[in-house]
Amino acid sequence: MVDGQLWLADPPLGDHNPPQGWDENETSGYFVVTRGNQGLFVGDDGQQAKFRRTPGGSVDPNSGCE
Q: In 10 A of CB 43, how many CB atoms?
């Protein structure tokens, strides 16, 4: 969630495990909206991931994961 809006990695980042070089639970960095429904996360160590904003009311597919 970013500012109350659900964003999903596009393409997905992996199979329920973080990509190489990412922390298991949290990776610090910044998120910018690049175009309306598209965003980019840039980690403090240079990691990058593209995201897309979901429609309002969308359910996080990872909400049951710990």
A: 15
Tell me 24's DSSP state.
S
Contact residues for 28 (Cβ-Cβ < 8 A; gap 6+):
43, 44
- Do the Cβ atoms of 12 and 26 come closer than 8 Å? no
In the DSSP assignment, the letter for residue 54 is P
- Residue-wise pLDDT tens for the chain (66 aa)? 887 889 999 998 877 778 888 888 788 999 999 988 999 999 999 999 999 999 988 888 877 766
Could you tell me the residue ranges of all domains in the chain? 1-17+26-56
Those residues with Cβ within 8 angstroms of residue 51's Cβ, 6 or more apart along the chain or in another chain: 7, 8, 9, 10, 31, 38, 39, 40, 41
